[in-house]
UniProtKB/TrEMBL annotation:
GO molecular function, one term: isomerase activity
GO CC terms of this entry: mitochondrion
Keywords: Isomerase
Protein's name in the database: Enoyl-CoA delta isomerase 1, mitochondrial
SUPFAM superfamilies the UniProt entry points to: ClpP/crotonase
Signal peptide: none
Entry's Gene Ontology BP terms: fatty acid beta-oxidation
UniProt-listed Gene3D superfamilies: 2-enoyl-CoA Hydratase, Chain A, domain 1, 6.10.250.170
Source organism: Melipona quadrifasciata
Coiled coil: none
């Protein structure tokens, strides 16, 4: 990842098997609580599984070194080309290993969150959309976007 990755960018990263973040002024995390909104439960569960309850509760964006220390990213890179190389090296490291056992293990580790999402997808989506459309939430997001435009 090159650049700041709040919310959706963080979710995309967490969905990947291996995460490499380019060092610098970038950050990653869920800052929903600081914006007055709530991430969907399946998203929060994954985040808590990776970084722990307390860090997730605070709603901070983490800079590269801290993101690495807490396990939100697996490695840091000096630039985009170096990040891509590190990811390719990671993928290459599994070429000689049979994938069935590794794949089954990953699916078992992710089963709880996957099952929850399958069972609760419609309710969760409805809750998120309803909350997101509240006038006070929209007003807060508008202020946040205006702040970003000034940077």
């Amino acid at each position: 990842m090159k650049g700041t990755s709040p919310a959706g960018g963080c979710l995309l990263a967490m969905s990947c098997e291996y995460r490499v973040l380019v060092e610098g002024k970038h950050s990653i995390g869920l800052n929903e609580t600081r914006l007055g909104i709530i991430a969907p439960e399946w998203f929060r569960n994954l985040y808590v599984d990776i970084i722990g309850y307390r860090r997730a509760e605070i709603g901070t964006l983490f800079h590269p070194t801290e993101a690495l220390e807490i396990g939100l990213v697996d490695e840091l890179a000096s630039d985009k080309a170096n990040a891509i190389k590190k990811c390719k090296d990671y993928i290459e490291s599994f070429k000689l290993i049979p994938s069935k056992g590794r794949q089954s293990t990953k699916m078992e580790l992710r089963k709880r969150n996957s099952l929850w999402l399958k069972v609760n997808r419609a309710v969760d989506l409805n809750q998120f959309v309803t909350f997101f459309q509240l006038p006070e939430v929209q007003a807060g997001l508008k202020l946040y976007i205006e702040t970003l435009k000034k940077k």
